[in-house]
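Hi P.,

Sorry for the delay on this. The queue was packed all week, but I finally got your sequence through. Input first:
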Amino acid sequence: MPFHVEQALQIAGGKMRVDGMYGSHIVHDRELITGQNPASDLELAKELDKSLQAE
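Then the structure:
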């Protein structure tokens, strides 16, 4: 690849956060809800449910 994903995100104004490799981490930014890895599935489902209940 002619670029690194982390650098491209930072150039576009994104913020990178580095945590443990197998920990649970989700991000909820307006309509986007995303999880870091499969360990985030339960936390991601709870956040999605909370978001749907709010609508």
